[in-house]
């Protein structure tokens, strides 16, 4: 038997062993999903190898699921496609002695964490400022959002020129501290079941509270004008439309700083504003639907199961996506971005963000993914690194479960570790 024949036979044997091992793995995963903690709910899953385009496992991957914050994967892709390396913070025209400005939806200005002062420093150079805010053609809250979340930190209203993250921060140790300070006289000390009046910027704070209370404030043109005037220590005007002519753009912080916070902390406000920001690159009209429609009609026109996609954050229960569509978008980002940059944007299992307590590596992270959680829903989609050095792409979506999500995460960990150790 010559050398070539021996090599051929060994290859056939190895391929056969690999195929047998993969069949056993698929059967094991199928058994897990069809019993135990997954039995009385709806589950969809797909795992692919982007290098070979092989589908390694799939289960209901073409079915539609409520994605929760997995929606932010589509928002991230949209922003990566439409926004530059630095965030466009303002559009402006300077005529005669007046600076005419309009917002782009940039959420970073005076944000309590991002602390960007680019807009304020820029405006401070001009004596006469005319502010245009009527280019925002969007509801304050997304369709399908829960109305009772109006006073919850995770559901600030959307706006054309956000300031302070559209959040009031209240704390009291030695003295009362309120940001923005304009609301200092609007704090009521009370042990109340609500944090703010539904239709007024009246806030309720328990004086025995030791941590900081974060409450969305009602935002409108009058409030935006008030905040800017206080920050600039001068009056500014509101105008119904911008002057004709080309607009210049003021650029702010690096875009990746917004993307990372959105993905790591599952920041709903930044997600919503990123879609509005993305629309500003296509039109002077600020509306997240413009960006969503553009991406679906162009970069994602080949999706086999087009989503019902109504917001940027996933707060809405109207959203519907399939695991297969999630994997398509993840694969596109994997092809477009360096692995280092891409994995920095996603939480690492066992290390940071929403995955800090789950899917731990041994010792290095092997899961880089975005979770999506809301009542009776837990989804996880992203990248899995195998022991042999391969990168797999997966989407695992769970809807209508009545048990603690921790039970599902334990079962999912078993599946992910089997994939990691087999491929």
From TrEMBL:
Molecular function (GO) terms for this protein are: serine-type D-Ala-D-Ala carboxypeptidase activity
Q: Which family does it belong to?
A: Belongs to the peptidase S13 family.
Keyword annotations of the record: Carboxypeptidase, Hydrolase, Protease
SUPFAM superfamilies named in the record: beta-lactamase/transpeptidase-like
Broad enzyme group: hydrolase
Does Hydrolase show up as a keyword for this record?
yes
Q: What PROSITE patterns does the annotation carry?
A: PROKAR_LIPOPROTEIN (PS51257)
The organism encoding this protein is Sediminicola luteus
Its Enzyme Commission number?
3.4.16.4
Question: What is this protein identified as?
Answer: D-alanyl-D-alanine carboxypeptidase
* Record PANTHER family: D-ALANYL-D-ALANINE CARBOXYPEPTIDASE (PTHR30023), PENICILLIN-SENSITIVE CARBOXYPEPTIDASE A (PTHR30023:SF0)
InterPro entries in UniProt: Beta-lactam/transpept-like (IPR012338), Peptidase_S13 (IPR000667)
């Amino acid at each position: 038997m010559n050398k070539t024949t021996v090599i051929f036979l060994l290859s056939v044997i190895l391929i056969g062993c690999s195929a047998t091992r993969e069949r056993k793995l698929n059967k094991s995963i199928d058994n897990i999903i069809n019993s135990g903690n997954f039995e009385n709910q709806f589950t969809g899953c797909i795992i692919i190898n982007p290098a070979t385009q092989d589908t390694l496992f799939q289960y209901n991957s073409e079915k539609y699921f409520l994605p929760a914050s997995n929606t932010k994967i589509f928002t991230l892709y949209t922003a990566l496609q439409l926004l530059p390396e630095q965030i466009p913070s303002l559009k402006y025209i300077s005529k005669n002695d007046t600076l005419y400005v309009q917002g782009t939806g940039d959420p970073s200005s005076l944000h309590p964490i991002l602390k960007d002062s680019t807009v304020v420093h820029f405006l401070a150079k001009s004596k006469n400022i005319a502010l245009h805010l009527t280019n925002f053609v969007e509801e304050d809250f997304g369709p399908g959002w829960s109305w009772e979340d109006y006073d919850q930190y995770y559901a600030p209203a959307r706006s054309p020129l956000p300031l302070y993250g559209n959040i009031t921060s209240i704390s009291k140790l030695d003295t009362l501290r309120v940001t923005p300070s304009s609301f200092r006289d609007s704090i009521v000390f009370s042990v109340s079941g609500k944090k703010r009046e539904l239709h007024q910027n009246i806030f309720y704070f328990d004086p025995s509270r030791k941590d900081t209370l974060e409450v969305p404030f009602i935002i409108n043109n009058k409030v935006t004008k008030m905040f800017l005037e206080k920050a600039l220590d001068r009056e500014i005007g509101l105008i119904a439309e911008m002057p004709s002519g080309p607009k210049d753009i003021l650029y702010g912080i690096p875009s990746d700083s917004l993307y990372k916070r959105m993905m790591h902390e599952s920041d709903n406000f930044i997600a919503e504003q990123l879609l509005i920001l993305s629309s500003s690159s296509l039109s002077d009209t600020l509306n997240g639907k413009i960006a969503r429609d553009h991406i679906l009609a162009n970069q994602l026109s080949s999706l086999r199961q087009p989503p019902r996609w109504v917001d940027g954050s996933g707060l809405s229960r109207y959203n519907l996506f399939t695991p297969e569509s999630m994997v398509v978008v993840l694969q596109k980002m994997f092809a477009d971005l360096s692995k280092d940059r891409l994995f920095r944007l996603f939480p690492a299992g066992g290390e940071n963000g929403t995955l800090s307590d789950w899917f731990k590596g041994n010792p290095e992270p092997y899961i880089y993914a975005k979770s999506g959680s809301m009542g009776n829903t837990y989804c996880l989609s992203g990248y899995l690194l195998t022991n042999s050095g391969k990168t797999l792409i997966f989407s695992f979506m769970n809807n209508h479960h009545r048990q603690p999500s921790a039970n599902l995460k334990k079962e999912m960990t078993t599946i992910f570790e089997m994939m990691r150790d087999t491929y």
